[in-house]
Design brief:
Helices cover 52% and strands 11% of the residues. The protein is built from 21 helices and 14 strands. The strands form four sheets. Strands 3-4-5-6-9-11-14 form a seven-stranded mixed beta sheet, with helices on both faces. Strands 10-12-13 form a three-stranded mixed beta sheet. A two-stranded antiparallel sheet has the order 1-2. α8 packs parallel to α10. The protein is globular.
Length: 465
Amino acid sequence: MSRTAVAGTDQPVDDPPPPVPAPVPVPAPVPAFSGALEPDRAALATHSAETERLLAALPPRPLRTPPQQDAAGRLFGTARQTRRAFLALHTDAVYDELTERRTRYPRLPELIRAAAAYFPGLVPTTDQMAAENTLIQAEKDGREVDQAIFCAAVLRSATAGRHLIEAMLRPTPRALELLPGYRAEGRVELASVLVERRGRATHVTFRNAHCLNAEDNRLIADLETAVDLALLDDATAVGVLRGGEVDHPRYQGRRVFSAGINLKDLRNGDVSFVDFLLGRELGYINKMYRGLLTEPGADSWAERTVQKPWVGAVDSFAIGGGTQLLLVLDRVIAEEGAYFSLPAAEEGIVPGLANLRLSRLTGARAARQVILGGRRIGTDDPEFRLLCDEVVEAHGMAEAVERAVTELAAPAVAANRHMLGLVEEPLDLYRTYLAEFAVVQVARSYSEDVLAKVERRWQRSRDRS
């Protein structure tokens, strides 16, 4: 024991004792669910309330000590085990209650809000998500993981999962509101997308010029509205996707198809799991591939949906989500010198449904080179023609697009693309992939290596500016 002298004397005294560390909270054990919905609902709510009480006693994540962060991790981990155990018994019953036995078709955000209200503790509340969304990604506790647990359970169920897919294939209220004006005028300007009818085609132009047409929450929402308008417009036979001109000094005045996910938004915590990571796959991309659901009671899928062919015009490059998008299109035209890439290995996240779809076009070996090794495929590579139908000079893009529209506007095209889709990607294959994707992708979004990579890239971009 160290000793010091009292000031003005030679008398030694003991040092003051060290402060007693605050007690570390211990999570309650996972409840032993009975299998009956009502008592299990109550047990879930009780366990969740106790977990939240213990979490509230801890500082926010950036201020926690390592022992406190370990304790928070155990609390969240046990709560997630509890949710998984509850859903293993009750997913279909929960979904039936939230949708009035599948007579209602709530979109995913509404479904999750209802789950929070009717099954306390099953998913985060609106207030909990609002608080989390004020933080950068590295400072969040990852409550979107809890949303992913619920979504994955619903998608794993053949009954509930199919119903959710159909709910997300319905037209959005925003599109229905804009549709009369589009039918009359043939033009709608959204915040990040321009929608124009030219002849028999609806042209959808990305206008996220400040970030090389990278995807963010706003662009995803605008693209779904645009796709709905194209599919609902009786005068439109074909949809066309193209990137607009961008502001980046290197590409000033040039068109760019897409730079993929906006990594700045990912770092800042602005990439939503519900609206972006899962919403884009269940929303506009799936609508382009499977059609817009307009007649739920019809006998066949073809009678229940409106389906039209899609053309992609690729200027400069299609990176990440841009390449993912091309995998569901019926005709892809690229300018000379363009390239495609899926920088999943570099970014550390899963490239959407490219893992499901890319190998159908390129074969398994090339798909692994692109997804696992980050290989970029340019117009000079032999594999480019497996991803692209035609390569043209930049000045010839508009003419090539018009030729494609004329060819794809034939009446039998929509029916035949539907039949091709049945063989290439059955609905249950898509559904089970998406269930696993929901869990894996959100986990990657909060993994230490991804957080470190996006932070480094953000710092480099700040230094350059």
